[in-house]
Amino acid sequence: PELDVKIDESPQGAVYLKRISDGSLQAAHPIKIDSGTIALLLSGILIREQQPTPNTSSGGSDPRPVFSGSEVGYLAPLISEGLRRSASDQQVGFRTGQVGQPGPSQQSGVSTPSTTALLYAYGRSIYVTLTQYHSREDAATMTTIPNSKSADTSGLANRTLSFIPESAKRPDTYLDARSTDKTLVIDYQLLAALPPVSIPSA
């Protein structure tokens, strides 16, 4: 994929447009989806450890938000702008954190804790795919055990995604050829109309 347009880049993260030149993407772009709806979308994405952790004897950890409140506040208006500026063969890419920022975890090939994702709209759905996830706990682990996650640079192995409110998430039959097991398909019109839900604390 080609990086076409940089919407914004700062220490908080970046939002950009990426062209898919093989003709496989026919998104409903440009499209106007307000930043409040995008904020609901980002806030509703939860991630959960599949494997038991020292704190949980079985079933893995409790779900937690992928994006913090400040990250949602930064990303939402920029993603909304990206959707308005994108063409039908472009998707909106975004990340949190700053790539290459000096820090204790730099030796392991990971800078500050960061998450990267791709997003596009089709019909009444937003397809969002998480491509990398590194929490602060991951950064600490990589610092103390440099090779512990060398086989999984994405940080997504043994983690599952979910969404709240669950009623806004479309069934897996909506997944397309570009989707992965870390893709969520959300009915954004229904999401905007639903009453607010309680988001677990990060």
**Structural class category:** alpha+beta
How confident is the prediction overall: mean pLDDT? 83
What is the string of helix and strand elements?
A: EEHEEHEEEHEEH
Number of helices: 4
Unreliable residue runs? 101-110, 139-151
Detail the topology: elements first, then pairings.
Layout lengths: L1 E9 L2 E7 L15 H10 E5 L14 E2 L3 H17 L4 E7 L18 E8 L2 E9 L2 H9 L14 E5 L19 E5 H6 L9
Structure write-up:
The protein is α+β, with helices and mostly antiparallel strands and 202 residues long. The protein has 4 helices and 9 strands; from the N terminus they run E-E-H-E-E-H-E-E-E-H-E-E-H. It has a 6-stranded antiparallel sheet with strand order 1-2-5-6-7-9. Strands 4-3-8 form a 3-stranded antiparallel sheet. Helix 1 crosses helix 2. The longest helix is centred in the middle third of the chain and has 17 residues, at 69-85. The protein is globular and about 40 Å long. The two termini are 32 Å apart.
